[in-house]
Amino acid sequence: EMVANRITDIGPPKYDEMWPEIIKNNYGKWLHHEILEPGVLVHVAESGDKLYTVRCGATRLMTTHMVEDYCKIADEFCGGYFRFTTRNNVEFMVTSTEKLEGLKKALAAAGNMPIGGTGHSVTNIVHTQGWVHCHTPAIDASGPVKSVMDALFDYFTSMKLPAQVRIALACCLNMCGAVHCSDIAILGVHRKPPVIEHSHLDKMCEIPTTIASCPTAAIKPSKVDDFKSVAVNADRCMYCGNCYTMCPAMPLADADGDGIAIMVGGKVSNSKCMPKFSKLAIPYIPNEPPRWESTVKAITTILEAYVSGAKRYERIGEWIERIGWERFFDVTGFEFTKRHIDDYRFAATTWRTSTQFKW
Ligand code: SF4
Ligand code: SF4
Description:
A hairpin with a 4-residue loop joins strand 4 and strand 5. The termini are far apart. This protein has helices at residues 2-5, 21-25, 64-77, 97-110, 130-133, 142-156, 198-204, 207-212, 242-246, 293-309, 316-323, 325-332, 347-350, and strands spanning 30-37, 40-45, 50-57, 83-84, 89-94, 126-127, 167-170, 184-189, 219-224, 227-232, 259-264, 279-286. The protein has 13 helices and twelve strands. The radius of gyration is 24 Å and the shape is globular. The protein binds iron/sulfur cluster (2 copies). The site of one iron/sulfur cluster has 16 residues, from helix 9.
């Protein structure tokens, strides 16, 4: 019993401990749902209970003051409950249309809790946050996300797109950010092999573990100026940063080498078709803090071409498949380069089988 009741700080509480009463009562007995207007859903249960959900765009990193503001609204309208979604939205749930109207007014009055992100919209960007906690980012996360969403805000608060558009950002090609299955993906890429700090390496790193960490077997033992160290075969390196995970004496962040690749057309499966992986649309855009102009321009270009060319309900990947990959480059004006071509000719010697790592 002691074990069952123990309180630890490992992991979140079990989900059903955090359910509002109406969700507990109707668990497994929801009949259907619909979107009443952008950002507002209603779920109807067998019992006749109705649950209204209001989705607000939020940020992944926020101040405790912001959380306090959400809590005040949740206390006033939602019995103290609200939830964060994986796409960094905040959702408030109420059980009547009267409460719904009051909630919407309070959110509008707050000024920083925009309602939207449902149906045929651009919902909030799911993203990583490598520069806060990780070791291999090639880009900032919050900066590009904020800049892109500022430009696409109108598509968040409306539902005028042919279908939903899911945008994701991962700050390196390890892709914690779902970029492989999103309609538009912003991906941090390195373009140079790691720098080897020979005088530190044998003091900071286990050489066998460092060699074993490389997925393309690009690392071998070496001796430099009497230091036990390693050498990297640059042709084999795909700039993944795995070696840096094991060995801090092999940093690969580089002001000129690092930047953004844009990918398009990924999605998870739905009733219409199988899942699709995203494809490389732009191999490299330099890092441009603070407003990331070229990245914003690239994404608005893709979105505008999609809006004017896609049929209703067609996701970006389905639209591209219908018009053809070549035509996608015509309508966006993006340059088609050798980096877009799947080329397995070098796989035997380099083990690279992807389009993204050819620099
Ligand atoms: Fe770290 Fe890469 Fe994930 Fe960003 S995408 S959090 S840099 S592993
Ligand atoms: Fe190998 Fe990746 Fe390190 Fe390159 S960056 S040497 S591919 S582990």
